[in-house]
Amino acid sequence: MLRHRLVFLRHGETDWNAEGRLQGRQDIPLNAKGRHQAEKAGRTVARILGPAGLSAPNLQFLCSPMSRARETMEIARAAMKLPIQDYALDDRLVELTFGEWEGLTWPEVKARAPDAASWREGDKWRFTPPNGESYAMLAERLLPWIADLDREAVVVSHGGVARALMAILTGMPEQQAALADIWQGRVLVFLNGKMSWI
Q: Which of 1, 46, 105, 108 sees the fewest Cβ atoms within 10 Å?
């Protein structure tokens, strides 16, 4: 389905990530560790693509509109020695929403809604939190975005988006993708139906 290499960065750490809070659509900024991770990821992308790749006219930089993703992109671009604001935002790259659960830790969710938490643990891909979004819904949202990719791209987005892309682009079983670790500060490369962490 994907005809070109996709270089994916998850945004750097926020205080809510460090606390284990469900972030979703809450616009939480990077913390100091997250800014360091963004710089490290930018250096990794520069190494992967090399000077010729970074200056290629057909390379596009795309980003979720959320501030933690934008800050990651700008720090990463600075580390690549590129103009920091020369990238495009795409609303389709926004994180899935946890609805009424946003801001809670998983133990808090389990204490408040044990039946729903148990259902989610049994089918994380299809479960929809109250007023939220499932991974299955997120994957449907991403399909037109993937179809629109017509050249190599560097993308900064979110953990949920990375998990959905793993299922869509590599054929990883949905439940496995929903449980996959998505590291901050590392780079995930999708190409020819395969993926690799760098």
A: 1
